[in-house]
Write a structure and sequence with these properties.
Number of domains: 1
Order of helices and strands: HHHH
Number of helices: 4
Structural class: mainly alpha
Length: about 110
């Protein structure tokens, strides 16, 4: 059975990266307008978390590409979707489908 722990880790990174993107947008569009001081105070911690999660997402994407022999097109699509709001949630959905298919093939 092929190990699916890497896919699970990548899925979690995708979800967390997507949440951090939403938090950044919410801070820019809502909080900053209602309370500029609070908005400024939140930019750094949310931005730092988002940056770290993006790096983790990218590194896990590279590891998955190598381990599961993903095509360059699939890997590029998953990378581009990290820049699209809600794109990483779609990536997580696809990863769950791939985990199911890997488990059913080996079962």
């Amino acid at each position: 059975m092929k190990n699916t722990k890497l896919l699970s880790a990548f899925g979690w990174a995708a979800i967390l990266e997507g949440i951090s993107t939403i938090l950044l947008f919410a801070n820019m569009l809502i909080v900053k307008r209602m309370d500029p001081e609070m908005g400024k105070a939140l930019v750094y911690p949310i931005g730092m978390a988002h940056g770290l999660l993006f790096v983790a997402y990218t590194l896990l994407l590279i590891q998955c590409k190598i381990a599961y022999r993903w095509s360059l097109g699939k890997s590029a699509l998953y990378f581009v979707l990290s820049f699209v709001p809600f794109g990483t949630f779609w990536v997580d959905k696809k990863l769950k489908e791939e985990k199911k298919s890997l488990k059913s093939v080996t079962a």
